Amino acid sequence: MSTTEQTYIMIKPDGVQRGLVGEIIARFEKRGFKLVALKLATPSKEHLEEHYKDLSSKPFFPRLIEYMMSGPVVCMVWEGLDAVKTGRAMLGATNPLASNPGTIRGDYALQVGMNVCHGSDAVETAKAEIELWFGKEGINQYKLASSSWVYEA
Ligand code: GDP
Ligand code: MG
């Protein structure tokens, strides 16, 4: 059983402005994931364009970049069992109206252009995103005291 999978989770400017930072962090903590990197950041346009480069041909791309530059974001790396897929499930669908209640977007958002949070969509994408956002600082390594109460022996 691998417990070292990591995912990049980011609270978007609307999530920060609406006071959802603590709530979103709490959900990942309570689920049993380990926080291994965290910062508040105001990324450059170039940095955001790199993060969303796969979407650069989409008609909404300029709007997306503008949205992401509208305020600071909270950047995090969470580690644990199936972190990428589970993180996406906790976020909900891209369109909040299609997100189930109980998910972050399903509880706190209504429109796709204001959907509160980002989560890596695959293990390989997560690696690239973690490098982009935390390549300089690096990731913390430590044993979470509660892990023996989250994972079976
Ligand atoms: P995600 O992985 O669920 O965040 O979705 P995508 O990677 O497909 O898109 C990245 C982000 O672009 C989404 O989270 C939305 O904030 C935004 N986005 C996606 N589709 C649309 C759209 O049709 N209109 C607008 N305004 N924004 C969109
Ligand atoms: Mg995506």
TrEMBL record:
<dbReference type="Pfam" id="PF00334">
    <property type="entry name" value="NDK"/>
</dbReference>
<keyword id="KW-0547">Nucleotide-binding</keyword>
<feature type="domain" description="Nucleoside diphosphate kinase-like">
    <location>
        <begin position="4"/>
        <end position="141"/>
    </location>
</feature>
<feature type="binding site">
    <location>
        <position position="60"/>
    </location>
    <ligand>
        <name>ATP</name>
    </ligand>
</feature>
<feature type="binding site">
    <location>
        <position position="12"/>
    </location>
    <ligand>
        <name>ATP</name>
    </ligand>
</feature>
<keyword id="KW-0808">Transferase</keyword>
<dbReference type="GO" id="GO:0006228">
    <property type="term" value="P:UTP biosynthetic process"/>
</dbReference>
<feature type="binding site">
    <location>
        <position position="94"/>
    </location>
    <ligand>
        <name>ATP</name>
    </ligand>
</feature>
<comment type="similarity">
    <text>Belongs to the NDK family.</text>
</comment>
<dbReference type="InterPro" id="IPR001564">
    <property type="entry name" value="Nucleoside_diP_kinase"/>
</dbReference>
<dbReference type="GO" id="GO:0006241">
    <property type="term" value="P:CTP biosynthetic process"/>
</dbReference>
<dbReference type="GO" id="GO:0004550">
    <property type="term" value="F:nucleoside diphosphate kinase activity"/>
</dbReference>
<feature type="binding site">
    <location>
        <position position="88"/>
    </location>
    <ligand>
        <name>ATP</name>
    </ligand>
</feature>
<keyword id="KW-0067">ATP-binding</keyword>
<dbReference type="GO" id="GO:0005524">
    <property type="term" value="F:ATP binding"/>
</dbReference>
<dbReference type="InterPro" id="IPR023005">
    <property type="entry name" value="Nucleoside_diP_kinase_AS"/>
</dbReference>
<keyword id="KW-0418">Kinase</keyword>
<dbReference type="GO" id="GO:0006183">
    <property type="term" value="P:GTP biosynthetic process"/>
</dbReference>
<feature type="binding site">
    <location>
        <position position="115"/>
    </location>
    <ligand>
        <name>ATP</name>
    </ligand>
</feature>
<protein>
    <recommendedName>
        <fullName>Nucleoside diphosphate kinase</fullName>
        <ecNumber>2.7.4.6</ecNumber>
    </recommendedName>
</protein>
<feature type="active site" description="Pros-phosphohistidine intermediate">
    <location>
        <position position="118"/>
    </location>
</feature>
<dbReference type="InterPro" id="IPR036850">
    <property type="entry name" value="NDK-like_dom_sf"/>
</dbReference>
<feature type="binding site">
    <location>
        <position position="105"/>
    </location>
    <ligand>
        <name>ATP</name>
    </ligand>
</feature>
<dbReference type="InterPro" id="IPR034907">
    <property type="entry name" value="NDK-like_dom"/>
</dbReference>
